[in-house]
Specification:
This protein has about 180 residues and is mainly alpha-helical. The protein folds into two domains: about 35-110, no CATH class; about 110-175, no CATH class. The chain has helices spanning about 15-25, 25-55, 60-75, 75-85, 90-110, 165, 170-175, and strands at about 135-140, 145. It has a two-stranded antiparallel ribbon. It is rod-shaped and about 135 Å long. It starts with 16 loop residues before the first helix and ends with a helix.
Length: about 180
């Protein structure tokens, strides 16, 4: 009489019975609920991030609303689409750059503008053609342009104009 040994000491004929029992257990059910909870929290966090980022980058409230609704209706994909299509810089950075550009233009524009009347003047003008205000000092002897801090002309050694003469217009000095 041949003797056979049982291959497995299980109650069923299913070789994957342990795996099947795990998927039917309450532990697996709790893990699934926990994963779904974290996915939902991540989705809501992406919607909130989209809102905060859109407020900092987009000036139009309608576009902010569209980006939020897109992130809310299309989980994960909406936030990804917003990330691809969003403006590259924050509104504060844009405003700061525009102010810096205006300040640089103002500084550069002051050189081409008469301090008296605001008329356009070129860098080599000695006087303003609009109001006759003296823009640069000139030597009274050789007519070379002088810097305000010089006390004498380096070309002919003549003394520079007095402070009163420096503020006079061309018409006042000629009369």
């Amino acid at each position: 009489m041949p003797t056979t040994l049982p291959l497995a000491a299980t109650d069923s004929d299913n070789p994957l019975g342990g795996v099947s029992d795990f998927f039917d257990s309450s532990t697996f059910h709790a893990i699934v609920l926990l994963v779904l909870f974290f996915v939902g929290v991540l989705w809501l966090a992406l919607v909130f991030w989209t809102y905060k980022d859109a407020k900092r980058r987009v000036d139009d409230p309608v576009l902010v609303g569209v980006s939020i609704v897109t992130a809310l209706v299309f989980p994960f994909v909406g936030a990804l689409v917003y990330t691809i299509l969003r403006p590259p810089e924050y509104l504060d950075d844009v405003r700061e750059r525009e102010l810096e550009i205006r300040a640089m233009e103002r500084r550069l524009g002051e050189e081409g503008m008469c301090p008296g009347c605001g008329g356009d003047v070129e860098p080599d003008f000695i006087a303003c053609p609009h109001c006759a205000r003296r823009l640069k000092l000139t030597c009274q002897r050789c007519r070379s342009p002088l810097k305000p801090e010089w006390r004498l002309c380096p070309f002919c050694e003549a003394p520079t104009p007095t402070p009163q003469q420096r503020t006079m217009t061309l018409y006042e000095t000629q009369s």
